[in-house]
Amino acid sequence: MTVLRTLNLVRIYQNGGVPVPAVRGVDFAVEAGEFVAIMGPSGSGKSTLVHMLGGLDVRTSGEIWLDGKRVDTLSESAWAVLRRKKIGFVFQFYNLVTNMTVADNVELPALLAGMSPREARERREYLLGELSLTERAFAAPAELSGGEQQRVALARALANGPRLLLADEPTGNLDSRNTRDVLKLLGEVHRQGQTVVVVTHDAKVASKADRVVTLADGMIVDDASMRRRRLPPGTAGDVVELRG
Amino acid sequence: MVAEWRWIRADLLARRAQVALTVLAVAGIVAALVTAATLLEEGTNPWRGLFTRGHGAHVWIHTKDAPDVAELRGLTGVTEIAGPYVSAPATLAAGGRKVPVALQEAPAVPPKVATPLMTEGRWLDPADPGGVVVERSFATATGLRPGSAFTVTGLDGATHALFVKGVAESGDQGFYPDWAPGLAWTLRQTLSTVEPAPGRSENVTGLRLADPEDTNLVVQRSVTVLAGQVQRVATWREVRASMELDNRLLGLLLALFGAAGLVGAALALANATGGRVLGQLRDLATLKSLGFTPRQVSAMLLAEHGLLGLLGILIGLAAGHVITAATLRVPPSPGQLAAIGLGTILIVLVAVLLPAWRGGRTAPIPAAPAVPPHGRLSRLARLALLVRLPPALVLGTRDAFTRRTPAVLTSAGLAVPMMMITIGLGCWATLDDFTANPAKVGQAAALSVRPGDLGAGEARLRAMADPAVLAAYPGVELDALVPWQTRTVRTRALGSSTAPYPFHVIEGRMFRERGEAVAGQGLLDLLSIRIGDRVRLTVGGTPLIVHIVGRVIEPEQDGEVLSFGIDTLAAKDAVPPHFYALVLKDGADAREVRARLLGSDRGLEVTQTVNPADRLAVIRVIIVALVVVLALIGLTTLLTASALGLRDHRRDLAVLQAMGLTPRQVMATLVTGTGILAVLGVLSGAAAGALLSRALIDWEGHGSGVGAGIGRAPTPATLAAAVLIAVGACLLVALIPARRAARARVPVTAG
């Protein structure tokens, strides 16, 4: 089942009256339970694309379909309501709400989605437990290491069990040990059936993905499924499949 | 809702000091407003204060015989009863004058209801039956003080020697001479001596009501109950009306300060909220990425900052209540409290609305940390560095203007309070000028002499005999009817056309001939006339046409006074003069001259002119309070600016340090960044205030009827001192966080 589909998605910024295209006609689809990595050099439009997929940025033209519904025409408020239930975001700079404790940060989306405070607390306890952060529940974000902060951000993104987890350079600000931990977590949630789209520079991250989409100058130049590589040798999977 | 409250709580807890300061600033302004309004009311209408303090009676019933107290007590709405007290008319003789007085019985222990409030001396004592307590305004008018001896003559013609044991105020009767006869409290036994025949005295009974609005109903009922015994009834409304002092100038000045305080509060709040929102943009973006709608974010900010404002208002109202109750011994009226509360709530909402809306419009992409737009070094800055101006100064100046809107807001946030402080100082200077040059406010004569029992000519001779008296102008004050007006205006004939009284003419010229007159602004406005017009009026039944040739500063009667030479009046009205206005020689002390004129048993009635500055004295208290509150507002603005500056430059600091700037230079950069905006704000505010204060006070003078021409700008020395203090305080406030920041070790790579 297709969770996400884009049709000829275009984003053009205006810079002092000069149009600067960031995304130039992207068509791609993400199936349920898929782990997609979007790669590409700086300025290739990766972040813009993932922001548009989550409704944080508006498209100039094209279509976005989420769970079989067209969403690119939604208003900012409608996008916000949609994000509560269906989309979880993880950012490069963690973006925990600075004045709230770890526990509050994780409970906030749950409360926002209409869970009762008790349910939200139970969900938070479960998630922090899964991510080995139980003892840091009442710490302020500033007291946490980068890796811990990113784990909290992940817990927050998963608080409502979203259909789609969007991560923008989730390991871009982490050392190798923390990168490994976060990747392990991403792998685990993916194994539990979570659909994940990750924007990354990091080949290690891409290696965890089922599929790697490569962007250059705002266009998809490569869309490679990695799953078949794990198939026994001697089959057609030896050849990397290229799609337009 | 839970999510929003969770965030609000977290945000409030994260910045307790800032929250406390905001609440304090709002509370300070509200408390100052409440106090000012109560002071104004107390100054212009002392009734409520006197009535509250003395636990007065709302209705006074005068009956021939003692009424049935039980029946009156039984009336619905009546809570307490004062009296009945026996009251007898008599004639009081003191200092060669005889005036009617009402002697009223009072218990040896001050009563619980309608308590006379002692201002001097002691209360009645059965051991001292000759001692009476005199009502204050009556005592002032008759020159009685504790210990003064006087005689009273009863209706039977017998004269009794009494003395003043004490002086007391009361909210149960208006002030003498508006409310006559004067009042004196005596013991029952003293009263029986003066007026032994019960038939010639009356009984007064006071009723205190649960709800003052029931007055009319209670009066009707008591008249019915006491069937035919009631001679007359006086209610609190009449007493209040008689005590009301119409002082539009005071009211207008107060309204001006009130408005200024509110504008200042709005700016401080808008600044604090705006600064906070700007500092939180990244968090707000994160919230939106989590699924907060723009409307939710705006509502959340509005609720958070609005609640702080509301809390400040509540604390301010409570504090105002406590302050006025403690210092003035009278709580503010509920109507005023409600008006101030509602007004400030409105201001708070307006002030918070814009930043909240802006917060709601934040783009939901939180990835990029909020960094100020990077400005380039201007040509001027490069030149400044080239000529080796201290780099800290140049960098700080550049930083100050990196964010244009907050820079303007900060400067304006300081300029407005500073402007109001300067205007307040202008008001102060104006009052000082009133006192220093009473001639400029139409009060060249410090004393006024009424002939009393003497002939007018004799009175003039005696007054002129005093070495300090320079001139004595004969005067008559009469009410005149003006066509098309349902009311009368005051006309004042003073001096003659050939030797006119030295009025302070602001526009036009002094009257020189018979039939010419000068008028106050209030009169010109009332009759919609201009200088050069002719006015027809009726004075004492005689028609009179006068030509208005000039406008004078007129502090009396809200400026609704027409002044001309005494020879303009018909002889029957002008002779003999009612009084002489005495102009004293320079340096003569009016009080001493008055004492001399009064003291030598010359039978003269001498009154000292009340300077308008004395009547406006309450403004000085308000100016001081206002300066304190405005300073608090400025402080809030400055702290916001300083915090914002630090936030913007956290990364720059590390870079500056890496470039080789010493901590002291870094600190200087930060102080310059905030300080330059502060100095700009203070200077422009002071300049605007100095330019405006004169015009504004004149405008107020015009509106109040006194007339334009009274306004003074603060003296250069005062202004310089105010600016220096303000700038010094600003730099000091900017220095503390800058010092801390400059010493902190910030890694260059901090995100």
Molecular structure report:
The complex is a heterodimer of chains A (244) and B (751). Chain A is of the alpha/beta class. In chain A, 32% of the residues lie in helices and 28% in strands. In chain A, a hairpin with a 2-residue loop joins strand 1 (2-15) and strand 2 (18-31). Chain A is globular, with a radius of gyration of 18 Å. Chain B has 4 domains: 1-54 and 240-370, no CATH class; 65-228, no CATH class; 371-438 and 612-751, no CATH class; 444-610, no CATH class. The A-B interface holds A 47, 51, 54-57, 76-77, 80-85, 89, 91-93, 95-101, 104, 107-109, 111-113, 117, 120, 156, 168, 173 and B 2-3, 6-7, 10-11, 13-15, 282-283, 285-296, 363-367, 369, 751.
Write out key terms for the chains shown.
heterodimer, A: about 240 residues, alpha/beta, 4-stranded antiparallel β-sheet, 10 strands, B: about 750 residues, alpha+beta, 4 domains, 6-stranded mixed barrel, 23 helices, 20 strands, about 20% strand, nucleotide-binding (chain A), ATP hydrolysis activity (chain A), ABC_transporter-like_ATP-bd (chain A)
User: What percentage of amino acids of chain A are in beta strands?
Assistant: 25-35%
Order of helices and strands of chain A: EEEHEEHEHHHEHEHEE
How are strands sequenced across the largest beta sheet of chain B? 2-3-8-5-7-6
| Total domain count of chain B | 4
- How would you sum up the major sheet of chain B? 6 strands, mixed, barrel
Mean pLDDT of chain B: 79
Shape of chain B: globular
Could you tell me the radius of gyration of chain B in angstroms? 33 Å
Mean pLDDT of chain A: 85
User: Which pair of chains forms the biggest interface, and how many residues does each contribute?
Assistant: A-B, 37 and 30 residues
Helix content of chain B: 40-55%
Principal-axis shape of chain A equals: globular
Task: Summarize the structure in short.
Chain A is of the alpha/beta class.
